[in-house]
Amino acid sequence: MSYPTLFSPTTIGGVPVRNRIAHASIVSRFVREGRATDRLVNYLASRARGGAGLVITEPVAMTFANRSPQRLRGWDDAGLDDLKRLAAAAERWDSRLLGQVQDPGRGRHATGRNDNAIGASALPDDLSWTVPHALTPARIRQLIDEWAAGCRRLKAAGFSGVEISAGHGHLFHQFLSPWSNRRTDGYGGDLGGRTRFLRELMAAIRAACGRPFIVGLKLPGFDGVPGSIDLAEAGRIARAIAATGDVDYWTFVWGAHARSLWLHMPGPAGPRAPYLAQIRELRQAEPSIPTGAIGYITDPNEAERALTDGTADLVFLGRPLITDPAWGEKARTGREGAIRYCVSCNTCWRTVIEGTRLECDNNPRVGEPDEVDWQPPRAAVTKDLAVIGSGIAGLEAAWVAAARGHRVTVYGAADEPGGKTRLHAEVPGGEHLSSIYDYQQLACREHGVQFRMGVPVDAAMAVALPADVVILATGSSMSVPVFVPAEYVAEGFVPDLRSLLVSLRGRTTQESGRLVLFDQDHTEMTYGAALKLLDRFAKVTIVTPRERIASDMALLNRQSIYQQLFDRRVEILTNAEPRSLDGLEDGRLTLFNVYNGDSMELDDVAAVTFATPRVPDDQLRGVLEAAGREVYLVGDCYAPRSVLAATRQGYEVGMAI
Ligand SMILES: Cc1cc2nc3c(=O)[nH]c(=O)nc-3n(C[C@H](O)[C@H](O)[C@H](O)COP(=O)(O)O)c2cc1C
Predict the structure, then answer these.
(1) Is the pTM of this model over 0.90?
(2) Can you tell me the distance from the alpha carbon of 478 to that of 612, in angstroms, rounded to the nearest whole number?
(3) Does 163 contact ligand 1 (Cβ within 6 A)?
(4) Strand (E) or helix (H) holding 171
């Protein structure tokens, strides 16, 4: 076996665990009116079946005050049957199910304030400026009793333990931090006071549930808030908590409800698995406590190394197991190539914060019943299919259709498949996206898809293709802003952002002036491109008519992008737009405020580019339909869309034919 330590059994808090893989707690929005939906049961069961020896649930409402239609009901016996159902679904695969104990306190990342917030002190949350009700000692004791009773209920339902989320800037973290806890009573002040709430909670859970029953902890590592918890303070907190003797395992997490929120889900900026060295250091607070490594560990080799080099005893995977629940089983059985890897886009996080339920750019089947090792069902009638376009929507449709028995040929104008996602993977922060089309290509090959690359398909060729069905995946083009003369674009004088990137491929020349990027896109690729273009231009200025940039990105990606753009001194001008390019030949561009029309002059302008709403490149549709072909449109050529929508649509069309 390639990963002997990863798949070695262990014992946590007296409970046998079959391997070292833990599914980190993930809010799913699969709970409705406090009830577990089938999708939640499927989701957890698939992570257990797919190879996680430990599965941590999303937070369970164990106090009456914490109840919510979107949280499992752990505060009274009415929720017991659901909890039993979940425990049975995971434990039947020899996985240990742990319920998460969490209250957000004053923390909030949606817009607005949290009117029900409780906290250590009446001080504003760093993100939402929610000021919580400061808990009295009597109320703290009451809540601890409720949590302990909730944990007892979980035990009765068949859970093997609980995990207390005391990181991520939530309530217990707020008590631990000298920044948010300014109490002068016994629950604040020195280390003993700030850790008291958590220590008493653990003691109460232990008294209620006894042993063996796993009590795990997520503790803050570096939280990125000045005056709060740095690595040294995290070590001191860990030592104080370890002294209770009640900790069965711990993990350390980064960031807080602040500008540092993005640190808790690393990936788009910076290296993979970035926190291992610090976790190794924190583990020394009490080496006998099993330590979990967490933070964008995506590859089984990285996981094995973290277990053998003294970093950790367990590896916690959050996003990687959303993308592929069978990550563990595939690694165990030598099928690493078949793992669908997390690309750290954080779409999952955006979908649970802003959307209706957990979704994934690289897994269109999150929470389906047969998610582990799902194989597309065979089509009743198999056909010859031509896929025109080799972006991620076309590739997804191609492999799914081929797996169903259709004979599929992909025609791509570029030399390599991947479409605009391949271009995105060339800019900072987009690198991991290559895993999407790499997986799709492997799946295509496995199912016999033929590729004709470097072959632009025109109307005559399209109608002559030997196919019963044509899937058009021909993408989109950026619309030309009204202030740009069409001939400037045609002559390449003012290229759109994608064309500019392509034209600069392999070039190392540096322009002395500034590049102006007109931004009506507001997604990741535009800002990755801005960072990349800093290598070519002395200065990059982003101009947008909206009130801020990056407004269509998840909050944490936006924070990360702002951090990088400001670090590299990219200029950001909001509420502004040009009305013409007069003066550009002399290096000048005039911008106008979109509200009052006030103008400002930019000088030293070497080039202008634009990232604008895209228009579908669906010109082949008419001729194909006139020729009597069955035609499907996927991806941008259907309507310009996100990676999430593109892979999903490719999958749905592949299933529909
Ligand atoms: C969609 C989503 C929801 C999450 N919900 C929770 C949660 O409810 N409780 C928690 O402690 N952590 C939560 N996390 C954080 C993860 O447990 C984990 O700490 C983080 O994703 C880093 O691990 P990863 O890099 O393996 O994804 C969530 C993460 C994501 C992506």
Answers:
(1) yes
(2) 6
(3) no
(4) helix 171-176
